[in-house]
Structure formats: C-alpha cells, structure tokens
Specification:
By secondary structure, the protein is an alpha/beta fold. The chain has helices at 10-21, 38-52, 71-90, 107-115, 127-135, 152-161, 178-182, 185-201, 216-222, 233-246, and strands at residues 28-33, 56-60, 94-99, 124-126, 142-146, 168-173, 208-210, 230-231. It has a four-stranded parallel beta sheet, with helices on both faces. The protein has a four-stranded parallel beta sheet with strand order 6-5-7-8, with helices on both faces. The protein is globular, with a radius of gyration of 17 Å. The relative contact order is 0.15.
C-alpha cells in the first residue's frame, strides 16, 4: 500500500510482522486518502491516531490530483479508493476502513465490497457522512465552511442524500484558490474562521462542519475559537468508527 504514514512503509511492515506472529492481535484501521499527497495522508493519519491510537495506517491514492477541488476529480477518486480498500482487505490485518475525503468517494462501493467478503463485514466510514450526521444530531441545524466552490453542488447533493436538507443552513466559502490557501496554514485558518462566523451569525447554524480532509489541522484549531460546535470531519469519523468497532462481535481492538 502506497503512502503509509511513516517513511518507507515502516508502519505497514511492522503491522504485517505482528500479524504473522499473532493474527488475532492486530486489527488496523486503514485511512485511505483519495488525493495523491503523501503529506496530507500523514497529517490526517496523525489526527486519526489522536482518537483511535497507533493502529491507524494511512495509505495514499496511487493516481490523481493533490487535492480534490472539482466534481471530475471527486468521481475519478472513487475507483482509486476502492482499489486501495481492496489491497487493505487483502492484507489480512484490516479491521476497518476510513475514507478521508469530504465527498466520500468510493464509500458505497467499499461497503458493498466488505459486505460480500468471505471474512465478514468490515466497518467503513466516510469523513463527510460522519461529520454531517454528527452535526445534525438531535435535529440540530448546521452549516458547512469549506474552500472548494466547484464542489458546492456535490456537497449539497450529499447533504440531501443523507436526508439532512431540512437542517442545513447553507455553505460558506473561503476566498482564493483552494490549493494555495491550503499551503498557507494561517490564511487557511483565518479564512475558515470567517466562513464559520458567517454560518453562525448570518445563517443561524447551531453547528458548523469544516468540509475537507486536508483541512483537518485547521478544523481542529478552530474548535476552541467558537462557542458554537465546530465539527472537524476526521475526529467525527473516528468517533463513529470507534462506536462501530465496539459493536462488532469478535473485533480485537
């Protein structure tokens, strides 16, 4: 698997070695980054490990852009996610899969794949779905702050597909090119902070989702700046995954 969270694939090698000694002892969560940036994979894996611990392994799409910023890139990412998921499942140590892009590319296909597996179902969670469901819990109204204007339609469709349109107060965008903004952490944080404030003050959102896996560190840092809950998608997905793993019979975790 390309793009482990440690240079040279050392994390994957250690997992395989431990599994060989005691297959029941290791059940890893494989975080699949649908874009081709290994730096982003490492960042998102580090965030996931804060919730799920060291058994999270990050893998990176073998092909595609460094950031998913338009519908064509989102569609092209889906087969790459499925291929990465197949490789993870074939390793014999994968206990769960986490799709780390806000549009959840390949999520439905991976779920179908794991349900058909002879080894039994494996929990599969997408960071977009998890964050939106958490934001809308108990009927709460929510908005989304993000950096990718070309994905606005796809995001609105995702909200509708999850049956959450009646609680959605709208989407607010940062200014400037998404990739350039992501390369400047301070500008990214401030741009997203303005978008969060607009969601709350202008739209009346009672929670705000930060829409993007590569926005993970900025999302984490913004939570302390607002009384309104700011939902960071990777931790939300990890919380959802932890609940699923706890409810899965025979899971060694």
């Amino acid at each position: 698997m390309r793009g482990s969270a440690e240079p040279g694939g050392r994390a994957d090698a250690r997992a395989r070695s431990t599994a060989s000694a005691d297959p029941a002892a290791v059940r890893t969560v494989v975080l699949v980054n649908p874009n081709s940036s290994t730096d982003t994979t490492a960042m998102m894996t580090a965030i996931a490990r804060r919730t799920l611990g060291p058994r999270v392994l990050g893998v990176t799409a073998e092909r595609g852009p460094r950031m998913l910023t338009d519908p064509a890139a989102l569609r092209a990412a889906a087969p790459e996610v499925v291929a990465a998921g197949r490789r993870a499942l074939a390793s014999g140590t994968c206990g769960a899969l986490l799709v780390a892009a806000f549009g959840d590319p390949g999520l439905a296909e991976l779920r179908a794949l794991t349900l058909a597996s002879a080894r039994g179902p494996v929990p599969v969670v997408g960071i977009g779905e998890a964050a939106l469901l958490e934001a809308a819990a108990s009927g709460r109204s929510f908005g989304i702050a993000t950096t990718t204007p070309l994905l606005e339609g796809a995001i609105v469709e995702r909200v509708a597909a999850l049956g959450l349109s009646d609680r959605f107060t709208g989407l607010r965008l940062t200014e400037g090119d998404p990739e350039a903004l992501s390369a400047d952490p301070e500008s990214l944080r401030e741009g997203l902070a303005r978008a969060v404030r607009q969601c709350v003050v202008r739209d009346g959102a009672r929670a705000v989702v930060i829409g993007g896996g590569p926005l993970g560190e900025a999302a984490d840092s913004l939570r302390a700046r607002f009384e309104t809950p700011v939902i960071a998608p990777i931790p939300a997905a990890c919380r959802r995954l932890a609940r699923l793993l706890a409810a899965t019979p025979g899971t060694a975790w």
